[in-house]
Each structure stands twice: as C-alpha cells, then as structure tokens.
Write a structure and sequence with these properties.
There is one protein chain. The chain is mostly beta strands and 96 residues long. The protein folds into two domains: 1-12 and 61-96, no CATH class; 17-53, no CATH class. It is 0% helix and 42% strand. The protein contains no helices and five strands. The chain has strands at 2-3, 17-22, 41-46, 68-80, 83-95. The strands form two sheets. The chain has a three-stranded antiparallel sheet, with no helix packed on it. 0% of the residues are buried.
Length: 96
C-alpha cells in the first residue's frame, strides 16, 4: 500500500503452499526404489483449493496528512526459488 506520494506505508505477504515430504517407511521401498516410493510420501497442503476464498483484515494506522492510498493485491505463483508469475493483480485507490 502506497500513499499519495508513492511512499510504501504497509506491505504484507501470505504464502499458500503444497509440500510433498518423503518419509522412508521401510528399508527397501517399493521394488527397491526407496527414493521413489510414493507410499512414503506425505502431502502437507497449506494452499487454497479451487473455488475457495480467503480473506484477511488489517487495521493500519496511517501517517497524519495522508490524503489517499493505492492498495495493490496480487496472486503470484512461485514456481522456483526467486522465479514467479503473476496470475492476477488488482489495484484500488482510496481517498480520504
């Protein structure tokens, strides 16, 4: 969120993630391929499922003299470390 002068007055990120963790459940694994044993995978889902929504509310004290703010919200897909694609982005201006 930026004020009328372009100064950032608030910033927040929330990460939704899906992790597949490997736990060796036996010494030999499936067909002796323990590293590829899908039965010893654990899926930890911290994501948003299709057609689900999520919301957050923040109370942000603004500096005195703030006349307007531009709020930008983006949904980004992080497909590799430090590499992302913006799927959607919305900007809204609020004047006081």
């Amino acid at each position: 969120m930026k004020d009328q002068n372009g100064k950032i007055v608030f910033s927040k990120e929330k990460e939704y993630a899906l992790y597949d963790l490997h736990f060796a459940q036996n010494k030999e694994g499936y067909l002796g391929l323990n590293d590829w044993d899908i039965t010893s995978m654990y899926r930890s889902n911290f994501g948003v499922e299709p057609f689900e929504t999520d919301s957050q509310t923040f109370i942000i004290p603004l500096p005195e003299g703030t006349k307007s703010v531009d709020i930008k919200a983006s949904f980004r897909f992080l497909y590799e470390k430090d590499k992302e694609a913006i799927w959607t982005s919305v900007t809204k201006k609020i004047e006081f």
